[in-house]
Design goal:
- With 475 residues, this protein is mainly alpha-helical.
- 63% of the residues lie in helices and 3% in strands.
- The chain starts with a helix and ends in a 5-residue tail after the last strand.
Length: 475
């Protein structure tokens, strides 16, 4: 009996089934990892001040962002009318991020015998610093992450043609959640390409650019219908300086340094030598991939630099700083390139493969530890505000907050961004908001002064039928 008879070639259906099984195995690994390193923030997750409208299903608090940022998918999510607890939203968000990481890993490294590297790639994507930073807006971004995670997961069972036919639809939805999310969809398509060629790459890039244009037109059309503006009007808090001519573009170049410097610095957790380590590893991995799999290297670099080009265009045209959390796509391409080159070097036993594996493992394991630490920095703020909420529960009358929230030790440690954050937190815990005197001093004119205290913790005092949350001045 011939070998072909005893081991018939796999059909398309059996191959898809095998990829799906592999996906769920890698997903289980990623799910366990993400739940372990985010455990410190899981039971009572940190919610940023402008994420409370999504948590509490308050569409009026998000309406302005449809005009300012075109986030219509997120606005629809605010209309759901059902309030689910923050811990559940955060757990689902992290599970979706794990699914996205696993799906991308399997897309890049399909087939049997590559499970170790697929798991490594999933974990390397999972610990992306931009993903860690943006996760604090998990309530708002939940539907958008679901869109890109579902698309990535579907890629394990769909044909290349079907996947690309769906790209415009998913791009429109993802764009209306977060501007750089569509770049992750492109990464899925690039990884799932079966036969790479310059012609195919050009066609895919053209399809993606067309999908982005369609997404922009759809967003602008909605803004025209509901706001009377064909386009977006950036919030003044972002301090935009739109360029209308060449001089304006040149003036906005300084924002490029701030944007990309901030991304590199925060991705290395402000440890400058690590920035150079990442750059050196990326350059080395690119050379390896370009020599051993040149078309694959071209595909991934095309996706990466197209994304970077879109960021540059946004910065120069709008004159804004793009935060590091928007660069999830860049870390994904970085992870793909360094892990794929490591797999290539490991095909033969030798020093090169061992060194490459050690370098990637060093990054992944150290970032798993760093993510674990980062998710614990909110504990003091969360515990202190829970204690205040417990003291307020059941007390009649209005609630005032006096003192400097931003410079309070636990708030500073947690990176509280606005005084109003404590109002959202109290509404989350007690169902009743507060009058924050730092933002509305006229409303608090009748309150007495509160002296410094030996106790640095927030406390609740009762004055004339009202509750006052006192944030003690720092001695």
């Amino acid at each position: 009996m011939s070998l072909a008879a005893t081991n018939p070639p796999a059909t398309a259906g059996s191959a898809a089934h095998s990829e799906t099984r592999k996906l769920w195995r890698v997903f289980l690994l990623a799910l366990v990892a993400v739940m372990v390193f985010s455990a410190g923030n899981l039971l009572d997750p940190m919610v940023r001040y402008d994420d409370f409208p999504a948590l509490l299903a308050e569409p009026e608090g998000f309406w302005f962002k449809t005009l300012a940022e075109g986030r219509w998918l997120n606005y629809v999510w605010h209309l759901r009318g059902v309030v689910t607890p923050a811990w559940l939203n955060f757990a689902v968000y992290q599970a979706l991020w794990a699914l996205l990481a696993a799906s991308l890993a399997v897309a890049v490294l399909p087939g049997r015998g590559r499970m170790w590297f697929a798991g490594l790639l999933a974990l390397t994507i999972l610990v992306a610093p931009p993903a860690l930073f943006i996760a604090m807006w998990f309530n708002t971004l939940l539907p958008g992450l679901a869109v890109i995670a579902i698309y990535a997961a579907l890629s394990a069972g769909l044909s290349q043609r079907t996947l690309r036919l769906l790209l415009p639809v998913f791009t429109v939805a993802a764009f209306m959640a977060y501007t750089t999310y569509p770049l992750v969809l492109l990464a899925v398509c690039l990884a799932r390409t079966e036969k790479r060629s310059l012609r195919d790459l050009a066609g895919l890039i053209a399809l993606f650019v067309g999908s982005i244009v369609l997404a922009m037109l759809a967003t602008y059309a909605l803004n025209w219908v509901y706001h009377g503006v064909f386009g977006v009007e950036l919030d003044i808090s972002r301090k935009p300086t739109p360029a209308h001519d060449l001089a304006g573009l040149i003036a906005n170049v300084e924002h490029l340094g701030t944007t990309f410097g901030g991304f590199l610095e925060r991705s290395a957790f402000k440890f400058t030598p690590l920035v150079y380590f990442h750059l050196a590893l990326f350059a080395f991995s690119t050379v390896v991939l370009a020599r051993r799999a040149p078309m694959e290297a071209l595909y991934y670099h095309a996706g990466l630099w197209l994304g970077m080009g879109l960021v540059v265009a946004q910065v120069l045209k709008l004159g804004i700083f793009v935060p590091s959390r928007a660069f999830q796509f860049a870390w994904i391409y970085y992870a793909i390139i360094i892990v794929r080159s490591t797999e290539i070097l490991s095909l033969k036993p030798g020093m090169a493969g061992r060194m490459a594996r050690n370098a990637v493992l060093l990054i992944t394991c150290s970032y798993l530890l760093q993510a674990t630490i980062q998710y614990t920095i909110f504990r003091n703020w969360q515990a202190e505000t829970r204690a205040v909420a417990a003291d307020l529960r059941g007390l009649p009358g209005p609630v005032y907050v006096v003192g400097d929230v931003m410079n309070h030790p636990s708030a500073d440690e947690a990176g509280i961004q606005q005084h109003i954050a404590i109002d959202g937190r109290l509404r989350q815990l007690t169902g009743q908001g507060a009058i924050v005197c730092a933002d509305t001093p006229a409303a608090c004119a009748g309150l007495p002064d509160f002296p410094a205290s030996d106790n640095p913790k927030m406390r609740v005092e009762r004055i004339d039928g009202a509750s006052v949350v006192v944030i003690p001045p720092q001695r």
